[in-house]
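Hey, quick one: can you model this chain's 3D structure?
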Amino acid sequence: MAEEIEKTAKETAPVEAPVAATTTTKKKKGKRVVNAGQVHIQATFNNTIISISDKKGQVLIASSAGANGFRGSKKGTAYAAQIAAEKAGEIAKKDYGLNSVDVYVKGIGLGRDSAIRAISSLGIKIDSITDKTPIAHGGVRPKGERKP
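Sure thing. Here's the predicted structure for all 148 residues.
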């Protein structure tokens, strides 16, 4: 009786189809090594944004005061800019091997100087500092006749 049950179980068991090995494995990209790069600091009264890129301008890492937990009026402080720059610099140095940078500063916020100091304190060599703040000049003369 037991033999009959085993035979019927074998006969009714589903037949496993061979699985085709058509799945392709993606090759894992290694981390890029960037020795020299650029740091772009946008310092406004409300926030400070730090972007670290390679020499071509392709962004590697970005950080801001708001992304680091500062809210409201505290985002515009020099301390918040320092923390944001330290976090971005540590990741860039650890993951990409960043050694030297050119710094581009834009804006008139409180975080300009403290962000630069934070980057230099991490051991990243600063080659140059360039101010890219736009200067307002009042625009061109308006169209129309001049009043006498």
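One thing worth noting: The first helix runs from residue 2 to 12.
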